[in-house]
């Protein structure tokens, strides 16, 4: 299936991206992609679990809003097409390595403190780990600076949770688009 | 590497289709010159400006990565533009004039340098641009405004944020005035008025906020200018002391050679020096037009510090405009404080959306989990914010330079080095204390300060009368290469503490008309 460039751009702007479901390609929002079990392109199972768990710890509701599918799809884009906040932070692309090492370091830190990957720890343990990450205070942290990791993952989670038409609805504030996205994310 | 495809020579070749490049393109094409404009990014149209903070990221730099370094790195990824319209496509339309003192920092205070022109010389160009573009504001209320024609439109409407914040400024005996904005408050020359949805950062598709897609690019095209997007300039060609054209790559990495009688670099305060430095040759070992070695030095930005508050009353922070509803320049006198030389202004009540770098959630980056959920519910209706924008004097160590390693087009990679000096940091600290006092006086239930950030890029190829102390002359013409002109904010010898776009347009009108009036002198072989 092919899409005209401008239609694709507009659909992408509204949150819809190309996802593969049961071998066929569809334009879906990240939330829809998650609900339909769309295939991931880059992220591995452990990375997806860690990202969703970190998203929920930072911004409740972000995992079900499709955080992992959003990040996965945007990491698959070219630098110029990507919608990730990391684009603003003058971190050299490609960003796949940044995310992979960040998620691996998070799981490793959880393992060292609590004996399991991040998605297995309790909410109290997750909170303590996040607080330590915010202060760059995790011994043997083996990824990008942990406070930077938190900032980036939190921004992604805020995007899918609050930066959409559905997110505005949830806050009970009007979206007021000039050019309204075709989809409500 | 295959041979470059050669194109028919034109009168003027412009690199960069942002505010300055598009303006020059219209000016020259309407004067009958054959014009080609090359831009590295995509060919945006108004219909591409979707209302979304997430979408707006595609309007930012998407070319070869630029490294931003130093103690206070410049936020290139957020500030730069990408594609037709450049950074002006996502700029906020905040258009104050520079103060008279901004042009005379050396002669008035013994610091930095003077501009080679003063406010009086630029004033008629401010007035003409203002009438042409249409500005909304209230000149009489701006007690700090230098002489100039009144604004052609009344101020923009104001919302709850502005009301509560103005209360704080007034309680401290400070003045506020509607911020002058290049946004229509009424119908103006066929352009619609603002609907106050607060999506300026994503670009204004109805053209209420002036950007290059509104007029300069379409009118330049109608006059025959050829805009080529996805055209990434690799180097400026020169022969016997004159620029002869450029080599550029298209999006398939095919090389092209475009010759011209005149070359205008309008590729930003970062990429103008980068292109010159990457155009080094046996004749120009330090870079084209860089015989004195000053290209890239004196890069400047503005310090930016946000102060935020939560109020009992509803403030509608999502409404209004991204720039500011009100301004205050009571702190603009550069030497009025015991510590910290330099000006600052307050941008009062910019619209805030829930997400993005300037959004509500980022203002409390320390919150997460349920604490963040509660905060978002409250702040999305009760928040208000003010931004202190401070001066950054030119220093040679703040500069655009090149790494030794190369990109896919065999150019040396671009590096920005920037740190604020003690004066800039002291001004920022003063403003931070003042801003917190404003929030307290306004009755905020809770208030806090955000981190130090940067806004705008200026300098690096400054104007001046002395070829040993500047890169271009008082009209933006290279001291070294007579048919090479530079345009944009890179020409600013000093940066003041106000948004630079109005001055960019006024300067481009002045310099462009001088170019046309002396065309034969510029292009004479």
Automatic annotation (TrEMBL), chain A:
The keyword Signal applies. InterPro entries: Gluconate_2DH_su3, TAT_signal. Residues 1-22 form the signal peptide. It holds the Pfam family Gluconate_2-dh3. It comes from the Bacteria. PROSITE patterns: TAT (PS51318). It comes from Iodidimonas muriae. Keywords: Signal. This is Gluconate 2-dehydrogenase subunit 3 family protein.
From TrEMBL, chain B:
It holds the Pfam family GMC_oxred_C. SUPFAM superfamilies: FAD-linked reductases, C-terminal domain (SSF54373), FAD/NAD(P)-binding domain (SSF51905). The keyword Oxidoreductase applies. Gene3D superfamilies: FAD/NAD(P)-binding domain. Residues 397-507 form the Glucose-methanol-choline oxidoreductase C-terminal domain. Keywords: FAD, Flavoprotein, Oxidoreductase. Residues 160-302 form the Glucose-methanol-choline oxidoreductase N-terminal domain. It comes from the Bacteria. Belongs to the GMC oxidoreductase family. This is Choline dehydrogenase. It comes from Iodidimonas muriae. The lineage of its organism: Bacteria, Pseudomonadati, Pseudomonadota, Alphaproteobacteria, Iodidimonadales.
